């Protein structure tokens, strides 16, 4: 590597004082969340420590994004609390946070050796240590999605940009916070002119401070280069924040940066109702969107929506069997697939006329076992039977966990037409109508996600069945519906009927 020095100007003198002296008291060291691990590194020629904090509710059957961050000793607690907030509000995916500890950040995070910093210039080894040793360690130990972010502040932001230009294959997204692009006569700004062509499909967020610092840090120069040389497929954004210091900008910047990087995740939460179901040829079925997106596109032939696909605003109608896909198209690589729903050709289901032999409510059978998914109930012994008329009454059962119940009866369609059914449950639930499985919400999970379907019912009673199991924790079943000429809402038990068994 070349050996160089900083050209001393009044502006650079101020910056130099900021980074060399202020960083010793940059932020108070924090208690790092998570667990410490030691990795013996050939790139760093010795042992290095990393800190790993798992998201709330981590489990072995879910895949998690990973964010690798620098300077965790003063930044990780803040970053973890920010991620927790964004994850709990569906703004970002549940993410494993990996802090890379640097005993000498001047050495680890700078790309070249300069006279004023005797230990500087070891960033290439440090970047390879993270990309070739830390990443494989994390991916072998935890269930990861393959979507990774590299984040750093100040010299850490310089290192992040260096990794982005030198080894873009290591990460999908790069978050550079008030980065020191002034370093070594704006070396990375010059490097960007040559290397940006290799960053196709990546995501880059850079944030800094408005005013003289924006130019002094070299961010203004980097923005000019990005405008001139960034490939069309690079999704990048630079934000300058008013009335912030080098320290205070961290929170705003990381919130915006994580939100920008997580754009594809938020797109993956697009909901349409119904998600699947049956359509009668020639009778239009309306599919409704649940959120407002400016560039929401859809297809009805099973292909992935792109920028040339039709725009979806509030709703769309189909009149035949369809593979319906919805997506906000992106130029990013490694994006999540479109949200898909399969609508098969169905038939009008005939109803039964209600008579006095039907009474309000549903019949139930109760079972006990260590259920982890819905079983074959024909192989189990029934512990208890009864009827419910006002609700599922899960709390009335003898056990609070490790039980299952099957509810049978009839749903009353008061008019002929498409009927939309939706449900959420904690834990697993299946919904059948006319002995056809219409919604499968099996498995161990919380009740945060709704599942929906549609079927054409003629006026009258229609046989239904709900199969439910509870593993542990909360027990919940919530039902919703929309019928012809009725507003959508909760499905009340006054629409359920059953025939009491003869004694």
Automatic annotation (TrEMBL):
Q: Keyword annotations for this protein? A: Hydrolase
Q: List, alphabetically, the InterPro entries matched.
A: AB_hydrolase_fold, Esterase-like, Fn3_assoc_repeat, PA14/GLEYA, PA14_dom, Siderophore_Hydrolase_D
> One short Pfam family name for this protein?
PA14
User: Keyword Amino-acid biosynthesis: yes or no?
Assistant: no
- Does the keyword section mention Hydrolase? yes
Query: Which parts of the sequence belong to the PA14 domain?
Result: 357-495
Supply the Gene3D superfamilies for this chain: alpha/beta hydrolase, Toxin - Anthrax Protective Antigen,domain 1
Enumerate the PROSITE patterns for this protein: PA14
Q: Which PANTHER family does the annotation name? A: SIDEROPHORE TRIACETYLFUSARININE C ESTERASE, SIDEROPHORE-DEGRADING ESTERASE (EUROFUNG)
Task: Family membership, please give it.
Answer: Belongs to the esterase D family.
Query: What name is this protein filed under?
Result: PA14 domain-containing protein
Which organism is the protein's source? Flavivirga algicola
The organism that produces this protein has a lineage beginning with: Bacteria, Pseudomonadati, Bacteroidota, Flavobacteriia, Flavobacteriales
